[in-house]
Design a protein that fits this description.
eight-stranded parallel beta sheet
Length: 215
Amino acid sequence: MIDPAEVASRVQIVRNEIASAGGIHVQLIAVTKTFGIDAVDAAFSSGCDAIGENYAQELHAKIEHGLADIPVHFIGAVQSNKVKLIASSVSMWHTVDRESVIVEIAKRSPGAAVLLQVNTTAEPTKGGVAPAEVDALRVRATEAGLSVRGLMTIGPTHGSVREQESAFQLLRRLADEQQLPECSMGMSDDFPVAVACGSTMVRIGSRLFGARAAK
C-alpha cells in the first residue's frame, strides 16, 4: 500500500536535496513502474512534475484506468511495435536512440517532444547512441518533425562519484553544444551528483515509493 503522506514527505526531502545540489527549475519525474495507480495519484498530489513509466503494456493498463491530466514521460527502452499503444498519452519520450523509433513516434505522434538517449559510460548493457552520433540523430529526429528538447543518459551502474560526474558532465556538454535545454539524468542513487552537473530532470522511484517488486 502506498501512503500518500509518506510519499509527500519523501518528495519534499528529494526537493530539498535537489536545492542543496544547486538545482534550479529541476523537474521531478516520479518513476511509477511496477507500482499501481495509487502511486501515480500520490506522486501527482505531492507535486511531482510528471510520472515516468518504463513498460508500454503496464502504462497502457494505467491509461485505461485513467490518468486524467497527469503528464506521462516514457523512460524505458522504446519498442517500435509498442509505440502505437501509448503514443496518445505520452507527453515526452526519454529514450529515442535509433531511426526506427524516430519514424514510429513521428508517425503516431507528429511533433512529439523527445529526448535523445546517449550512452555516456560506454557500458554495452546501456542503450543510447555514442556521443559522436548525437548530432546526426538530432538532425534526423528534427527532419522527421519531432521536437527534440534535450538529451538523456543513465549514470554508471557501479561507478564512483568521479565516474558519475564524468558521465553527467559529458551529457551536459553535448546538450549545450547542440543548444538543447533539457538534460534528463540522475536517479535515486545518483541524482544529487547529476543535479550538480546540470541536470534539468531527475527520474526518482525507490526514494519516493520504496523498493519495488520484480516486474
